[in-house]
Amino acid sequence: PYIAEELAAILQGLPYPRYYLDFESIQFVVPVWPDTRPYEQLPFQWSCQIEENDGRLSEVPFLDLSGEPPMRGCAEKLLTTLGMEGPVLTYSPFERQVIHGLARRFPDLRPALEAAAGRIVDLLPLIRQHYYHPAMRGSYSIKAVLPTVAPHLSYEGLGDVKDGTAAQVAFEEAIAEDTPRARRDELRNALLKYCALDTLAMVETVRFLSTPNPFSSAQHTQP
User: Fold this and answer.
1) How much of the chain is in helix, strand and coil states, percent to nearest 5?
2) Which of 91, 188, 200, 191 shows the shortest CA–CA distance to 153?
3) What secondary structure letter does DSSP report for 18?
């Protein structure tokens, strides 16, 4: 494994509270909600892990399976959750794009949403520049990085939803009028578990790589 010497200091320097954020969105070929476009990225879910300076971790989830447009509720709860300060950590530019899209859709929320987008720290280019493990096999996906830093966590144990595409399929099924309530509840749980694991994966990645010489720890088993 390769870890740049300065990476631990960079990650340790991130202030608290830290907000680890991941969105799930849907792209309808034929729009189902008013004032939306074909293939428009419309967020219906997010997970936010909030890490305090004493290490305490709490998750705030958002998921709307009502079948009504979820964007307004998504934006409002996001702003309430993120507060006014602290870095918003993501693992791609996608979250920033989604927030800017919400800002364009809701002019009254635009200043607050743009302020939140301005706090984003994208971990992907940081990890790509400073870290590599052979087990990643050339991929910097969070799903490739996670087994190298937290072998105790895995996407393999998830049920119906193991990736973003499956999340979209599950959402479409869940909001369909003929989906039984029991099946909708099953899909809700699967979506919540998947999105929470995405943000927890970021937390574990930052914590592991914040430790100087992490692979020297006897507690870590390399994949």
Assistant:
1) 45, 15, 35
2) 200
3) E
What are 45-87's pLDDT values in tens digits? Answer: 999 999 999 999 999 999 999 999 999 999 999 999 999 999 9
pLDDT-flagged residues of the chain (< 70): 217-223
Which residues have a Cβ under 8 Å from the Cβ of 206 and sit 6 or more positions away?
11, 14, 18, 20, 89, 123
Among candidate residues 211, 156, 174, 167, the one with its CA nearest the CA of residue 47: 167
**What does the CA dihedral 100, 104, 108, 112 come to, rounded to 10 degrees?**
10
Integer Cα distance of 13 and 11 in angstroms = 5
Closest alpha carbon to 132 in 21, 209, 20: 209
Residue tagged 């100087």 (tokens): 212
Measured CA to CA, the distance from residue 82 to residue 17 in angstroms comes to: 9
